Amino acid sequence: xxxxxxxxxxxxxxxxxxxxxxxxxxxxxxxxxxxxxxxxxxxxxxxxxxxxxxxxxxxxxxxxxxxxxxxxxxxxxxx
Length: 79
Hints:
mainly alpha; flat
């Protein structure tokens, strides 16, 4: 009989993680991410790149605004 195929999630490949190890350990890097991102960025024209960057800036401003709003609300509640 042949052995069953070993999957990537086999118990030998998985290490038992502790709570401290979960916070401290780093995930393995995704090797497909950067080449895929570079190819998508290369396929964008100038207008699409501007929209992408502007969207990131708007998202950052909204996030910081939400944090400031929560801070103001919490400080108003505690007075």
